[in-house]
Design brief:
homotetramer, 336 residues, seven-stranded mixed sheet
């Protein structure tokens, strides 16, 4: 039996913990969350896990791995505690809003060699994965243009925005990761424009709600991202990979399969709402892969280095947007 | 130069005459329509044709072919006049509402060997034609189930209904023809149900506005037709051919290419409205084929025998609906 | 806690039992299946249920309900045992291949008043349900034409065919049920044609693999079903409801959301494969409704009378196909 | 009668001249093309126009308007001759590859007040026009993000590339124009990246074949363009306008309406090929509008100022790509 502990019984921690616990070879031992809640209690009840403090986890040598899904400001410390305890970990993105700290944590993980998987679930979605595999296989020809859409169904609460690190670190980071994943190489330049077109309160909180980003890769290929905090039709999460021999689209997944025709035309359902539902398969596959990593040492699709590089792109995008200039990513680039 | 005359300057005669006249090798000499109208004048003006009486056409030996697109009750007589004059003809369906007369006319044409093309324009539509060719080529495998939808955008005026011969002879006849065209064999049984669900005035005029028909072919394959006089979204003209190796759909052609997404979902355009617009390509291709027949003797896709057999199926469907029984089509079957 | 027993640990029994056991208020007490199998063992292990014989279930007064998902030839007896024990039941269709027995069982259930839910899961699929609700609400206008497609991805083993009661009782019965569910009234006439176009072994076993069926309702509305044992692209399960004000389609649910464009065109995924996967939501919703019925007495969407009437239509279709005649359903119609 | 002359009997001149000549109130008097060709002869034959030299046109006071569709390097001179003669003109884009000359010509036209319509046919396409009108009407809410795809089906001959002024002036200029048309305001910044990923010969000729461009508008809204010289599936010409209340897509128009389903999935037709076919409606509408301008003085949807501003954006994109920097468009910006 693989024994696990989860940090954080909030929205995403709850999903990960239940997915892990549903696997036949897994026992969820501990739930760590300082704030009592119905969800924390429910998670413990459903899985038979005990609610404990962090110390109890790291002092229990029988724990095979930890799922870090607590608030972002605790990630770095928990990763370092896992490294110290030699416990393998799955960690939600981002690692920290402080990029210097991200680089230090990444260095510590690498140095210690502690197995670490990062929560870029889109890599585990069967659709994105099929695109990656088809490109990697050579069937599609060279990927020349990548166009990604990520639009939330509606703006998050301003309180969330304030703690989020901004739209690039919080939301667009998945697209930065996907760009690297599909291109199979690093990014050379980043250019970002952004503004507050949807919700003035987000602007007052110092963030943006609408952005467009252009990346060029080391070998000279091209990426466009368009991101925002509201699409009128719901969650918009799509991708277009124009390759030399074919184009691959990942389309939205509709809520239902009913189409209605009237004099106005034919109306099909809006997309599934929201990432927890849209990526339910991917979240399940992540826990399967995490347990596989614990059992066999199999490399996950996203590791600490991927977290570091995706965030480097987010930092570069922030600098580009703030200065109005293109950022060229030299080796080890960091924001000032 | 190929010299033509057109009988009938109404909706469909106007389309055929202009399409023919637009061909480089064609001269439209005469327009015959007993009723003066702006459209008759316009047709003559645009093509340089003269407005004459029927006699003038058949006494002019330079006329290579006639387009018979006058009212249905004149078709049989004009065909017989063409046969007598030895003039090749294109004739709109149906040949006559009187099936006995249809068989006599068909016999006369066959006996005389006068070239004759029937106006089943759907055979010339590039989409239906591609389906036929793909099936004929063997790529699709055996056609097992054919499902056809023909629904008008809105009921015709009751005056039209009264003269039309009823929905089976007037509208469904195209589907009967398409069934024979795609199956590549004759029909063995016909079963039809129908009623008046849309417009009570149509019922008072002795016709139906909604029907479903089942055909079985001589070799035991299956056809479903559903027909009506109104689809809430406009003209519905589709086909599904389930074959052993693939399924082929002819879908509606949307009015435009704009799709609108909102909280209600994604709405794309209703179909093109109506047969004159939807089948514009097919009508043009018909005149090309007619002229080709006149020049080279090339067989058209639909001849007199096709008109006869499609109408036999319409007659059988009427008998089936009226008796509530299945009609078995023995050799030379005719309604009583 | 609601205590349940399941009869049958095969494909569908396994699904129902796990879905029921996953509900917070349910305890699966017993699994009854005379044939030892890995799946039977797995089901017991996952749910904590005991493997027992039928007697143990009906002599345990704490059992609130039974799930009858054993082989068809045991359904009738188990229903009668449930009635005798006064235990509420969920029963898979069909009730029996012997229609006389079906009517007797239905009468016994009705007389005793034992709560009984029938396994027409399509009624619980969110898509079909939305269509039903939209029609019932009046938004769509009167349903005039209903067209249904049910095509298996590939023919079942001949051994299955022999025990199945034939394609109409085994497969098309869901469409017969859906016709009644969406029309909201009974059927007046049934006409069926069928043959063996796909797999000659099915024909040798006395069954058909391809059929088309036409129904008319008491008030004169129309239904077409086309059914077969193989669609080249996979499981085909669709519906079109043409109503006076709009048309409603339930479309297939694609396997994935990737579309690939090349010189050949744009290719999207084939449908989900197969009913267990396609109707996963519906099967879950069925168990929720069954438990709700046990707790509150809430009427399920499909009861014993629905099972009886759907099967009556299957019997009429068999008679129609065998005689080549239309069957008129007078009150209490039964096959000879 | 409106009397017209056409300069250029090449691909697009031929289309414009035939469309104009087909209008009932138009007489095409002259065809001017220094190079004898079958197409020039055919155009004269079909329209009854005479083949003359340019002088003959400008010295004929009965000419109401000229269609300038000759090679790009002759546009500026012909415009100035039209201005001198006081003859209204329709001119294909671009006005000149020399931006300084474009500004001079634009100034001359404006000063003289000679009516002038520019050949941005996409403004006349019913789909793009519907998007514009829906946004202008307020129904869609504020346009926030505009994403445009323009991809040729295959790279043009290198000889064409060399004379074309480069992909931005030749192809992307339509997207620059569309951005201004849909935003309804001017552009503030331009950022472009490009490279040669498809055809090395294009690179050797000093041009690019793949590019991505980001625009921001004066009021802070965002535009992405992705352009290239080859899409594996054919001509890709799409647009997505994300507005506050809805999103509007202009999708590709498929070649046919046949969909084929097999085990690989469902394949629908690739797009119509190529701009002459895809924009046939738009080209017809352009000539209708040109003649309307000649008759009533009605403003065309695109005038000289639009040609100037679209080309300014193309020039800015070239500078941005060459310098790797963002170009800020101050009043009257010009390339050095």
């Amino acid at each position: 039996m693989i024994k696990l502990a989860v940090f954080g019984a909030g929205r995403i921690g709850y999903v990960h913990a239940l997915n892990a616990a549903a696997l036949p070879s897994v026992k969820l031992e501990y739930v760590v969350d300082p704030v009592p809640s119905a969800q924390r209690a429910d998670l413990a009840a459903k899985t038979g896990a005990r609610i404990v403090e962090a110390d109890a986890v790291f002092s229990d040598p029988s724990i095979d791995g930890v799922i870090i899904a607590s608030s972002t400001d605790t990630h770095a410390e928990l990763i370092l505690l896992s490294v110290a305890a030699g416990t393998a970990m799955f960690c939600e993105k981002p690692i920290s809003l402080n990029f210097k700290l991200v680089t230090e944590v990444a260095e510590a993980v690498t140095k210690a060699g502690t197995p670490c998987m990062l929560g870029f679930q889109r890599r585990y979605d069967p659709n994105f994965r099929m695109v990656r595999e088809r490109i990697q296989s050579g069937v599609s020809g060279v990927l020349e243009q990548l166009v990604m859409h990520t639009r939330d169904p509606s703006p998050p609460p301003v309180e969330y925005v304030k703690r989020s690190g901004g739209m690039f670190r919080d939301q667009a980071i998945h697209d930065f990761d996907m760009a690297r994943y599909l291109l199979g190489e690093e990014i050379r330049t980043v250019y970002a424009v952004g503004g507050c077109l949807i919700d003035p309160e987000i602007g007052q909180a110092g963030d943006i709600d609408t952005a467009m980003i252009t990346l060029t890769s080391k070998s000279g290929r091209f990426v466009q991202m368009n991101n925002c905090r509201r699409a009128p039709f719901g969650y918009d999460q799509r991708l277009e990979a124009l390759c030399a021999k074919e184009v691959l689209y990942v389309e939205n997944r509709p809520k239902d399969s009913v189409m209605i025709g009237s004099a106005q035309g034919f109306t099909s359902a809006p997309p599934m709402n929201y990432f927890i539902e849209r990526f339910a398969d991917a979240y399940r596959a992540e826990m399967v892969a995490f347990v596989e990593m614990l059992k066999t040492g199999a490399e996950p699709l996203a590791g600490m280095a991927d977290g570091l590089e995706a965030q480097r792109l987010a930092e570069a995008a922030i600098v580009s947007m703030q200065t109005g200039k293109v950022v060229e990513l030299t080796a080890g680039w960091q924001p000032d």
